[in-house]
Design goal:
single chain, alpha/beta, six-stranded mixed β-sheet, 14% strand
Amino acid sequence: MPQFINAKETLVTDAIDGLLLTSGGALTRLDGYPHIKVVCRTDWDKSKVALISGGGSGHEPAHAGFVGKGMLTAAVCGEVFASPSVDAVLAGILAVTGEAGCLLIVKNYTGDRLNFGLAAERARAFGLKVSMVIVDDDIALPDLPQPRGVAGTLFVHKIVGAMAEGGADLDAITAAAENAIGAMASIGTSLDTCTVPGSTKEDRIAPGMAELGLGIHGEAGVEQVALKDAKHAMHMVLEKLTPMIGDGPHVALLNNLGSTTPLEMSVLAQELATAESAASIKFIIGPAPMMTSLDMHGFSVSVLPVTPDNQAHLEMPVDLPAWPGMVALGATDPRPLPDGLSPIKPIPSAHPRTHALLDHCCDLLIAAEADLNALDAKSGDGDTGSTLATAGRAMKDALDRLPLADPTQLFRAVGDELSQTMGGSSGVILAIFFGAAGDACASGHPVPQALLAGLKRISEVGGAAKGDRTMIDALEPALTALPQGMGAAAAAARAGADATARMGKAKAGRASYVPEENLIGHNDPGAEAVARLFEGLSET
């Protein structure tokens, strides 16, 4: 898979240099490239307990992204998913440790335990006070004799970081770290494995499946299950965590494992915050990428009981862009819409024939959703079908509230409804169209002429005309032919829509940014939607 890297061999050092150059002078490194890759604070004076973490790279922003005042003193970076050497860890210890000593925060992987552990022994031989804690918060594999260390490690970074900044001694800091490790739990799930630079991606998780409990290096999880939706994914994770959550208040760390979009993460946050099984979770850190696994499309949840002490430590602000901070979970009451924004609600009136007509129009648009999305993907962002189908579903729900027996008020009401429920520019354009048609009806024009008046208005406002490769290429000939009957209108709409496939340049809409080769041979999706609508109506 193509990636924005220079070479596999320099990937980590290039990334560290990029972090340093954009740190505003807050970070530096030891001069030991390429074998010793240690990121340090520039403001450290060794008068306080030093905090050192690290491990293989590929988990960014962990660990170097959390080096700074109130969190880590230094991070020792290995190659991607590979533990740093004993010499690298020792260099980090010697560089930042003074009389107050240092704490090594190590995730429970064999390489990290051995290399950090031996470096600690050698540092002690130099007369330094060095403690080490092992984070083993992953509960995915309950029978594993050595549980893995995952995103819960960040709880430790933040708690002991605040303590060290406040001047706590090494014994108190070590005890707090051990208490947090003993009380926390983490588990994650993903839709895909990660892509290790220079290696072939493992095709282990089938489309439509999710793997529960996989590791942050792409290790296999406990089971694969069919993915239903975000609610189900969060339920699976919380189900595993529930036995670890007591009655008191807890904090959840909602971690993006790499390539889950912010939109998805916000949906997952909503599911976490409203889940009945998570009633004890009163605080949240995230959602954010904190302990990632390269480009893994997944998330993890870590939980920790909140005590007065660790609440203060977790809430202490830090000037680190990668740390999202901890906030209390709580619903907010929506504010009322400003006066004048909500349209005057029309008085509903029944008209079975009009009801059936509009209902059929909506069904036609909903049925065409997938085809129109596929067509729009050729020249736009692939959402024309979804936009129209969403409007169709909303309109079907609103039919009984509309003034169906009064064309003037009906056109205006349809425009108002679309302006509120239909996304993108299409909703605005159609709202103007139907609003203008309603105005024309109020002036005594028959429906066909009123619709042409609406068409004229959207051309004036939107700047598009026939020949610009938009829905107008089908709508204008259809409305012009409408007095001759629905069959004539449908034929005109189809001819107009098909003509757009021969237009190599769009003069309006997103397609105007698309090269000719992407347009030729494909109908404009808006024009195609109009053609399908009139064809469906002509058949009935």
